[in-house]
Amino acid sequence: MSLNPINAYKKVGQETLSGRDVEAMVLLKAAKKLQDCQDNWESADRDQKLDESLKFNQLIWSIFQSELAAEDNPLPKPLRVSLLRLSAFIDGRSLETLAYPASEKLTILIKINRNIAAGLRQHPKAA
Q1: How far is CA 99 from CA 19, 30, 82, in A?
Q2: How far is CA 93 from its chain centroid?
Q3: Least C-beta-crowded within 10 Å: which of 10, 59, 60, 125?
């Protein structure tokens, strides 16, 4: 049974975790789904798992895109622009992988999610 990622995102957000921790957790979950798909590339249900993992990842990045595009987003504009460009790359790679599946195409998506999650978990020190 697969939970709706938006509901899971909201549910976790209502708990005691910070927004950054929630975002990191969701990115790591997406990376794990992609990694599991890559590790089991020759399985009979690969196409279904690939579709599910890529759609889950795209949904997360779509949420990020809408937040990054919001006028009241507190991040500095250059960082927002860079993250929006990164999300456009992720969209393109995801669509390319769906159209022309290859396990190695998942590697960059997995690495991006893990690296962004690691950055989100590094809380800036108070001034």
Answers
A1: 33, 20, 26
A2: 13
A3: 125
Q: Which two tokens stand for residue 107?
A: 């590697």
* CA distances, 119 to each of 11, 21, 24, 33, 57 (Å): 22, 10, 8, 20, 18
Domain assignments of the chain as residue spans, ordered by start = 18-120
Calpha distance 16→69 (Å, rounded): 26
| pLDDT band at 1; cut points 50, 70, 90 | very low
Q: Does domain 18-120 have CATH number 3.30.1370?
A: no
- Segment 39-94, tens digit of pLDDT: 999 999 999 999 999 999 999 999 999 999 998 999 999 999 999 999 999 999 99
pTM of the full structure: 0.81
CA distance 84 to 64: 8
Q: Which is it for the CA torsion 80, 100, 6, 17, positive or negative? A: negative
